[in-house]
Each structure stands twice: as C-alpha cells, then as structure tokens.
Amino acid sequence: MKHISILVPEEVVLASIFDPRYMFTAVNQFLEMRGEPPLFQVQLVGLTKEVRLHNGSFSVHPDVLIQDVKRTDLILVPALTGDIKKSLEINQGFVPWIVQQHNKGAEVASLCLGAFLLASTGLLNGRECSTHWLFANEFRAMFPEVELIDGRIISEADGVYSSGGASSYWNLLLHLVEKYTNREIAIQAAKFFAIEIDRKSQSPFIMFNGQKKHEDEPIREAQEFIEKNVAEKISVEDLATKFAIGRRHFIRRFKTATNNTPLEYIQRVKMEAAKKMLENSTKNVTEVMYEVGYNDVKAFRMIFKKVAGMSPVDYRNKYNKRAVFA
Q1: Phi then psi for 52, rounded to 5 degrees?
Q2: Are 147 and 113 a contacting pair, CB within 8 Å?
Q3: How far is CA 169 from CA 19, 62, 129, 161, 165, in A?
Q4: Phi then psi dihedrals of residue 204, to 5 deg
Q5: Domains by residue range for the chain, with CATH
C-alpha cells in the first residue's frame, strides 16, 4: 500500500488539501469496485493537532503529526496563499521533515503555489519547476537556482513534481494516479472528476505583465517604450541606440532585470495586445496582426501559438463569443 502524506500548512488554499484527499480515496473506491484491494493510505499531516485557516473560518484536524510519520511514499505540498514570505516563515517546520523523507525515498509533489515551500527545501535546486504563472517573477527572484518553466502544467525530475497554477494541480494528481496504478484507472478518474487528461500547458491562461520590480531605470524606460508602441516594428538595435547602451550590454541588462531577452519581451507584449483584441473586438486575425506590427502571417501565427499555446483563430473562437470567426 502507498502511504500518501498531504501536508496541512497554515496560510493554505483549503481545496488543495481536500481535493487530493478526495482524488486518492476515490481511486481506492474504483479499485474496490473492480474487486481489487485499495492502494492508498491517505493521511493529513500537520505540525499541530489543529490548523485554523482563512482567518479562523475553517479548522482542520490533521490525522497525524509529522514527527509520528516515520516513513511515507508521497508528500503533497498544497498551495500557499496570502503573503508568500510570511507563509514560508510560519511553515518552515515542514522543511527538514520533507528533506528527510525524500532522502528515505519519498516522492514530493507541490500543487500550484506549494512550489514556494517545496523550493525552500532546496530539493528543486538545479531542477525544472512549474507554478502559477502570475507568481513567476516572484518565484524567480526568491529561487534563482530553480529553473521555472513558464506555461508548463507538470514538471518532474527524480521523484520531485510540481504543477501549474490553480486547478492545474488536478492534472498532476491524475499523472500520479496513472503512475501508481495504470492508464485505465487514470482515465476513470479523469471522467469521474471531469478533468481534461494529459493537458500540458497553462499558456492560454497566462496574462503577460512585464517584470518591472527592478532598479535599472533605463531598462524600465525601454519596457515602457515597447508597451506604448505595440504597433511599431522595434528592433533590439533601435532600443540600444535610443537608450545609449551598447547592444550586447543592453541585452544582458534587459535579461537580468526582466527575465526576458528584449526580443522575447517585444514578442510577449505584442502577443498580449493581440490576445486582448481577439478577446474583445470583432477584428479578424489579419487585422489584429497588423495592429500589433506584424505583416507576415506565418510568423505571427507561429509566435502567437508559441506564447498562447494555440493558434490565433482557436484563441478567438475560445474567448470571443461576439466575433464573426475568421
């Protein structure tokens, strides 16, 4: 039997505790319906016997305290909420136990912003990671030794897992169910919980908001210039010249400050503007393309799909109910 330990931290999204509990207990029921023994022993694991959440609106009573769990097979780190730095501080008691259990062979999986607590253990250093797209800049600033992959739903390396934002963690739970059981059971769980199985990307949900919490004023001005001139064709050379910085030095400073190269930033700003037009206007894809400074249909569609995870037409059809689809 697989022992699953779901942590009950303070300052946590309540659903990210009970959803995985529901998932794995439901899989036990699926197995029993097939005449097979249950596979998972699921426990809520806490630092105290009672954890009060959401300003005392809810109270969770863990099944067991961490010091009483001598060995487990899978640790699930739920999504933190509120002030992330404060949440990490008050939940540091979990960190040595997570590391100890991983060293004994336990796998560890974070759900959404649980990646911050997982990263604080050091287990993600040098590894790829997923988390909520909205907190990507904050995560990179706090954990520069972790390779955060934008848009990815599930990251996995050496028994350490992480998931993308919000409800994306259901896909990680399905992934773990399939790993521990089989594809047939995973499909049954996907149908029971109405989850799109094998979803790989959260890119369609990302709203790009350039990182401006830095001290490099010329680079911030360059960012603002890009954002105010979406329809213009702006080159890296143009920007370097405009702000009187050598091209190579400009690229290096821009990347350091924003986590994007200038070209990536220009593309992301233009694609975000294109997404908003496709969502809210009746313009067709070609008109939108020109509005954001492109005149090569193939190049525009390729970059849009890379950023948004789907073609401009599919994006428009998905999010704009008023449009006459091109």
Answers
A1: -95, 130
A2: no
A3: 9, 21, 13, 11, 7
A4: -60, -20
A5: 2-205 (3.40.50.880), 217-319 (1.10.10.60)
Exposed / middle / buried, residue 93 (Cβ in 10 Å: 0-12, 13-18, 19+): middle
- Check if the beta carbon of residue 234 is closer than 8 Å to that of residue 266: yes
- Regarding pTM above 0.90, the answer is no
Rounding to the nearest 10 degrees, give the CA dihedral for residues 253, 257, 262, 265.
Answer: 180
DSSP conformational letter for 80? B
**Cα(4)–Cα(21) distance, integer angstroms:** 9
Task: Give the separation between CA 95 and CA 320, rounded to whole angstroms.
Answer: 45
User: Counting every residue, how long is the chain?
Assistant: 326
Cβ-contact 142, 80 below 8 angstroms? no
pLDDT of 55 reads: 84
61: CB partners within 8 A, 6+ apart: 44, 49, 50, 51
Each residue's pLDDT tens digit, 289-301: 999 999 999 999 9
For 158, half-sphere exposure in the C-beta direction (CA atoms, 13 angstrom radius) is 8
Do 210 and 260 touch, CB atoms closer than 8 A? yes
242, burial (CB in 10 Å: exposed 0-12, middle 13-18, buried 19+): middle
* CA-based nearest residue to 275, from 292, 296, 299: 292
Question: Coil, helix or strand for 64?
Answer: strand
The whole-angstrom separation of Cα 77 and Cα 79 is: 7
Give CA separation, 125 vs 91, 129, 133, 140, 211, in Å.
Answer: 19, 9, 19, 12, 22
Strand, coil or helix: what is 271?
helix
pLDDT digits (tens, 9 = 90+) for 6-26: 999 999 999 999 999 999 999
Amino acid at 33: M
Instruction: Work out the number of other CB atoms within 10 angstroms of the CB of residue 263.
Output: 14
Output the six-digit token pair for 63.
Answer: 């099944």
